[in-house]
Amino acid sequence: MIRINATLRTEDFGSAGARRLVRAGRVPAEMYGKDGNIHISLDAHDFGLQLRKLAVGKECEVAVDGKNYKCIFKALQENIMYGTLVHADFQIC
What we know:
2 helices; six-stranded mixed beta barrel; CATH 2.40.240.10; alpha/beta
């Protein structure tokens, strides 16, 4: 199973915060579940390497600050003009 490392986002939400994260080499992401949403950020380089093995609808494990979540990779948004990852979505199983 593919393991993705992430950090929890506790502040700086919205489109301006997402742009700041992308410029800093991070990818803002969401994990959706029955208990609510979890806002996370991923390292763009490491996540880009993991995308070679990951496809939409595939199961993966997301590690957020020492806690592991079994998730399904749902969506990826990228800026095709600049070749950067913009946003990722995961659904908690």
